[in-house]
Batch of 4 targets.
Target 1
Amino acid sequence: MTRPRVAIIGCGFGGLEAVKALSHADVEITLLDRTNHHLFQPLLYQVATAGLSAPAVSAPIRHTLRRQMKRGNLTILQAEVTGIDAARRELRLDDDQRIGYDHLIVAAGATHSYFGHDDWAAHAPGLKTLADAFAIRARVIGAFERAERCTEPAACEPWLTFVVIGAGPTGVEMAGTMTEIAHHTLPQEFRRIDSTRARVVLIEGSDRVLGAFVPQLSQRAREQLDKLGVDVRTGCKVTGIDADGVDYETRANGTGNETPDGEAVSTHRLHSRTVIWAAGVAGSPLGKALAQTTGATLDRAGRVLVEPDLSVAGHPEISVIGDLASAKSYEHGQGQGEPKAVPGVSPGAKQMGRAAAANLLRRIEGEATQPFRYVDYGNLATIGRKAAVVDLTVPVVGAIRFSGYFAWLFWLFAHIWFLIGFRNRLMVMLDWGWAYLTYERAARVVAEPPSVRTPDSLQGGPRVSTQSRNVPFCPK
């Protein structure tokens, strides 16, 4: 084989764009992903909250890249990469198979970060994969079912208290949607409980929600959350999570435990049996593997610090893109001007995928590579029914910011437009249209809800696990 061998790890937004850009070139491409589908993550929370089914936000990789496959230079492997040998230019797979490469693009994405408290994962699952979405859906629907079985009001309350930790786009969208489920979808479906009594508490460590947005839109988002009935608590630091609830502390003047700087601390306990984690992300474990074999530097979140052209220092044949890359963008190109950090959003991953592919082809031709320049089109976030915030950047015009009903419509059509495939767009339009008219959520079926019984209580019956499986317009 005389054509250069290009290996691409991950078929998220960045990996997918890199494959499309390279499929026209005279190179041999091997795409590796541990799943068989591409996932449209900005709408993953809709699967977790029973608004959409899994096929509506995902598509088989082989079907998505069928046109590229016809060109005869693309091989797709469903496999997990467990190691990288930069010296030999080899990838080690989960079955210990070795795959050689001449050029490597790593788009392995991100995982959940619990800030050193990995034990919280069992009680507060995050949302990055379809498996995560199924587990969260089972917990949310199962909480109402468990509340129906309670005979005492005091025992019922923790089941009807839902806590979302982290008020970024995912946390805000989850909190708003869960409130709508309790207030509009489930009323009159239970006999013993009143679902409208359910509480959704959104906990955020900073002083405002949607910190990536300008303060004006952040305030509008909070007002819309309040209107929906979400209990928003900012300035709260989570200190503990267990099966029965969340511990957090707030700092304010007054009584409480004195800190060295004289600031008072108040501790609080929130009883809840359903906690969702949306507070932090960390780079894929492949980032550490890459650092070990190349000497690359990782940031605090485990992301790889890359060169201006997205390559790894000392290894120009390796590029890192997407959520795994700690990249900076130069506003004026050519490495000039003050660099700005590239946000971890889908447009950034797409642009990095195309840029990495273009630089790879330049290296093959012996040309100089170009520094990456991120074009920021803005941010979108939905809060709930008829509620959203939009922050757009339009050339010449500048920033366009609005919120409310028209922002919600813009958010709807933008996400439909960027979905993969006509079938997915049609499915989402139909599901959203029906939900808008009826408040129904058709994807509420749970195949196997998590058991609330312990093995000791089964009295000789089959042993049942008591834990959920913990297997993340764009921008999001």
Note: The first strand starts at residue 5 and ends at 9.
Target 2
Amino acid sequence: MTRGTVLLTGGAGYIGSHTAVELLGAGWDVVVVDDFSNSSPVALERVAQVATGPSAGHLRWHRLDIADTAGLTSVLADEAVDAVVHFAGLKAVGESVAQPLRYYTVNVAGSASLLRAMDATGVRRLVFSSSCTVYGDPERVPIDETAARGASNPYGRTKLVVEDMLMDLAAADDGWQLLALRYFNPVGAHASGRLGEDPEGIPNNLMPYIMQVAAGRHPFVRVFGDDYPTPDGTGIRDYIHVVDLALGHVAALESSDDLPGFTAVNLGTGRGSSVLEVIAAASRAVGRDVPYQVVERRPGDVAATWAEPALAEKLLGWRATRTLDEMAADHWRWQSRNPQGYAGEGAGPPTPPA
């Protein structure tokens, strides 16, 4: 589609902020809606600093909860939005098990609120932040988009429900263009070291935990099992650099004119890396061995998952190019320069750029 104005819900978050940089660099005007409940306005200030150049678009943002349908409707209309990328939502598996109603309220009801606002303003292009969790325990690897869907936790089920909602919407009205991007495991950070993953509390994901161990915030990495049927006995996942993932969103938006209805696409590298391989890459980035200890398996973990990304290349003209060593080096640059994340610069109310 022709470049225009794109709204990012949750655009101050890890993936959203990196996507904002790439969209701005590609010439899009970017409007962010975020309630900053799990993100920092400092990220958007840094996006504005990093995304410079003669063809860069303009960045604006609004503090707003996506449950506020009327507020979203006003933003969509006032900003003359052409398309939406929907990142906003909760994403911790363990937390979703303990607080399922909160996850359904934010992830499912929040998505319905956004779609109502889009419908009211005639904005019919949406890229949805989905997840490989919709495949559950996969029957085969690599996983392509024809694989059976399922989920073993409330977080995954909220992604399934929203995908189903989008399918039903497309079936009811052929004017919609709806893309669900099923991410595998985003890691890394912007090469500038100015943007990165800033999890609250103890990280749930492997790479940020490894980097916090390297920074001295935890004594060692816990490796959950080394007796899986994999080459080194540890679990294998498809890790994708967050900038490659962000570029996948740019490609998705610019291909949406050719993809009416509902389409689901994997975003992954097509290669799996084991836990020990990730620790080794992190150790190379840091320049010393990152300590780890093997502990018991976690319930529900599967041995190996990685993507078949061929459809993304066919439909979107996109493929991941960055290596595991690049992911680790960029993540360590962010961690070492921002040991307390964005909190080092405060997190007061954002001042939108002029």
Note: The radius of gyration is 19 Å.
Target 3
Amino acid sequence: MLDLGCGEGRHVHGLYMLGGLDIYGVDLDEPSLKKAEEGLVWLPKADTNTETQTTFETGDATALRFEDDTFDAIICSEVLEHLPDYDAAIREMRRVLKPSGKLCITVPHAWPERICWQLAPPPNGYAFQPGGHIRIFDEVDLKASVERRGFKMFKRHHAHGIHSPLWWLKCTFWERQDDHPMVKAYHDFLVWDLMKRPWITRALDTVTSPFMGKSLVMYFQESET
């Protein structure tokens, strides 16, 4: 497994707990990689008889060091919206993925993202931070960009419906996003939901995700044509 643009390791940590997988987390940001590696210490590992390894390393999504046909599956979550040449990253993922492999890409859902851009405008707003989002993806265009590289989408959905309001609040109170009481209160609510996962918030997220989910999630495999 490759988690390309792994950040602080959320997906790597989930895969690690499943067990039975060799996992690579790749990112350009060294402090995030350090946090991701340190986080493994606190996680339970599945009891399997398979000897595996989890590796974190710095790397450029547009110029990966791995050989062709290395990975069975790749996750690229909330990364492409940051890259000036996102097509180069798609090309690299195609190169290092085995012909039978699966690819999961997530990007910000277009209309919730547009609200963020409007609420925190230039020159210092949401979309104008160093390393920040430089584009809003149209779903049809992104699907076409990936499929031009020899993939075929077989599933898509939206996720994190109850997360969009947090970003709208952060953008509304952009200059105080770290200490504004409304932002802090909603952030604490999401942390509580993550840890406790009560049925009522899980149901609310399921209902809201199709139309206001923060993320668009797309799954691809090798095209048969």
Note: Residues 163 and 190 are 7 Å apart (CA to CA).
Target 4
Amino acid sequence: MRKIQMVDLQKQYQQIKSEVEEALQQIMESAAFINGPAVKNFQGNLENYLGIKHVIPCANGTDALQVSLMTLGLEPGDEVITTTFTFIATAEVIALLGLTPVLVDVYPDTFNIDVQAIEKAITPKTRAIIPVHLFGQCADMESIMALAEKHDLSVIEDNCQAIGADYIFKDGSKQKAGTMGILGCTSFFPSKNLGCYGDGGAIFTDDDQLDYQLRGIVNHGMFVRYYHDLIGVNSRLDSMQAAILDVKLKRLDTYIQKRQEAAAYYNNAFAGNNHIKTPVTAPFTTHVYHQYTLVLDGIDRDKLISFMIEKQIPVMVYYPIPLHLQKAYSDDRYQRGDFPVSEHLAANVISLPIHTELDAEQLEYITTNLLEGVRLSQK
């Protein structure tokens, strides 16, 4: 049996090696390393895939979030609501810009931001909402957009984990994750469902004026060379990464299907076990399984992790500490116990390997040992 990895990028690369190497060779020969044709080609292809007017490539997903906030004309002290159960970058960019992150709890089944909690957190200082499409499925965007319209708020979708997921509206229409808010952001970190071989990110919008501003901000606030109309940053997706992403974009739906098949295998294997809660997909979204995350009940998680490591099966905890309990974000507004769902999840979740290259032998080995580990780790 092949070594099991959380994400097997080596084997995935072998499937696309010739195309990737050909694409990189063309860039080497043209020497168009920055903002070359490969970037523009990938941008156009991703716009077509998402059904969005504008894709603005940038250096990484964190930059995508920060630059998006920079276009909204927010002032220091303005409040931005987001979830406490997410990767730190979501709140990090809010704080870096002198804005005030307002954290709220999540739903216990989907792990996504609680819409009622958002509404309760809105104050006269609230200017924006950043819902996170956590682990691969959409937050309740129809409800969030209605709430934003009611209170005149901007919505920036943190779509760093759910590219390719579909949101299904009550009328049956669909939109891709990241295309419903005024802005959407994604990361192309190597382990993402659509990942490059370094850092990369992108911003999505249908707004022509925001598109114009975004392209200036990511290029030092410059629209005409050496004339700087805005305070900007240096955040570019280089041509090599764009070329790799373009090769992978053609296969994204296939990659998603393979992840869904692996998740279905896990779900069937763990069905009926009272100590394991498998992922729940909301009825208004598809799930692309950036992570496959279980919630444990009555299990010593550390003991289970040690057992899995002994069996050479990698597992991860996403995320062990909610944002409101992080030292960097300590705030008198929040105390332990304020967000019970997120705190419970942080203490009890565990994520299993999920990627495009998992085979039947590996899946059987993982599930068999996970069940055995759960049996041995009961409190």
Note: The chain has a mean pLDDT of 97.
